[in-house]
Amino acid sequence: MAEQVAGLAPELAGERALVSELVGDQAGPWDLAGELPAGLLRKLGAHGVLCAEVPAAYGGLGAASRPSGELTAHAGSLCSSLRSIMTSQGMAAWTIQRLGDREQRRRYLADLTSGQLAAVAFSEPGAGSDLSALQTRTSPAGDSVVLDGEKMWVTGARYADLLVVLARHGDGAAFAVVPASAPGVRLEPVADPVGCRAAGHSHVRLDQVTLPASSVLGGGGQSLPLLFTTALSYGRISVAWGCVGIIRACLAAAVRHARRREQSGRPIAQHQLVARHLAELLTAEQVSTRVCEHASRCWQDTSPDMVMAAVLAKHVSAGHAARSASTAVQVLASAGAQDGHVVARAYRDAKLMEIIEGSNEICQLLLAQHALTTAGPG
Amino acid sequence: MTTGQAITPVTAEAVTAEAVSEALTAFLAERIKTEVAPDQDLFASGLASSMFAMQLVVHLEETYDIAIIGPELKLDNFRTVQAMTALVLRLRDG
């Protein structure tokens, strides 16, 4: 699908082909089974595909934001569960790269580009967007820290070797890198999630988990909202590109069906009300791609605008993905109304995209706040 | 990495407290359309949010070729023009 998009950058073409080859026609069955093959994730991880922006000096592909985004969109067009794993792994890698000291970057980024899998744990039973309610905490204990808390809906946790956990730390906050195998870590899979069913969402309990102090990125003590925004900015761009993939899959499926399916003696594409659906799908694909390209450009330029560009890209693309998936199911009607079908998956997966990495409402609050801040007084 | 559109490279001799403070005041005036005093609390006065603080982090790192990491990533360092100026000078010395 993404291979047919005009003007697609040649960078990472081999990686996109590898994703196509490994996913094949299995995304539907994975969705129904609620599980991805762990061996496939490790293989993609070892090729650096799950966090393509890790610099070459740390063993990564060193991709720029836009080709990495197109790779993410390609995975998203095939399987949003796999794309969710890419978002988690990429967000973990970015967080380590941005906040870790030299030794931590070297050690953990080598792990994440050689087949180890990572997940990032933010949300808690009482703390989603309201960071002030965050309860998970580190306590110093000599050369160690002890981590206690409970995290919810951690994407990819079921497959993860490393959990990157946001916690209170002294007067500030920190990300701690926790081996999933550490004593005191317990995972409880989220049963039957509405979307991205094979993405391995789990609740994570951390009960007196003792870690070397060197597991705390950059020594900790940073501002909680700054840490949150740092990690989420990558996640938002990644989800936004993933939504572009969902929209591309919906557009392709709807066009294919509307050409072939005949009613009243002509293909349904020639029925005006169906043609309008196709126009809306194309519009959604183009608008979402442009807003993602803008966010990636801001990111690549390390422009201060990247923070809000990421929020905008996520909000616009998630909304378009949800509407496009609904439209595509409408066009395909009974042909796409069965679980496992690409548009049926898109319908459920896209709804989740309006919730994660900042819900529609939180994104709108941030955009409104930005409008107020940048308008000046009076 | 391509160069940012609004970012002017800063030479070593230009990084005095006065120059940093002036440049930051100008950056804030452009971004939030407000002339702020050097000791004005941007967060308490509602002029800026933690999202904007992240933009300040990116701006300072790019403009002054510094890495703001570890415990330096605390809101107090971005609360006022004075605090940010002190941060820039400290990290450039370090």
Shape of chain B: globular
Strand tally of chain A is 9
Write down the overall mean pLDDT of chain B: 86
CATH class of the largest domain in chain A: Mainly Alpha
Distance between the termini of chain B: 24 Å
Mean pLDDT of chain A: 95
Largest interface: A-B, 35 and 32 residues
Q: Measured on Cα atoms, how large is the radius of gyration of chain B?
A: 12 Å
Q: Which class best fits the helix and strand makeup of chain A?
A: alpha+beta
Gross morphology of chain A: globular
Structure in words:
The complex is a heterodimer of chains A (378) and B (94). With 378 residues, chain A is an alpha+beta fold. Chain A contains eleven helices and nine strands. Chain A has helices at residues 13-23, 27-33, 38-46, 65-78, 80-99, 102-112, 224-260, 272-300, 306-332, 342-353, 360-375, and strands spanning 118-121, 137-141, 144-154, 162-169, 172-179, 185-189, 202-212, 262-263, 266-267. In chain A, strands 1, 2, 3, 4, 5, 6 and 7 form a seven-stranded mixed β-sheet that branches. In chain A, a hairpin with a 2-residue loop joins strand 8 and strand 9. The mean pLDDT of chain A is 95. With 94 residues, chain B is mostly helical. Chain B has a domain at 38-94. Chain B has helices at residues 17-32, 50-64, 81-93. Chain B starts with 16 loop residues before the first helix and ends with a helix. Mean pLDDT of chain B is 86; it is low at 1-5.
Features:
heterodimer, A: alpha+beta, Butyryl-Coa Dehydrogenase, subunit A, domain 1, Butyryl-CoA Dehydrogenase, subunit A, domain 2, Butyryl-CoA Dehydrogenase, subunit A, domain 3, two-stranded antiparallel ribbon, B: 94 residues, mainly alpha
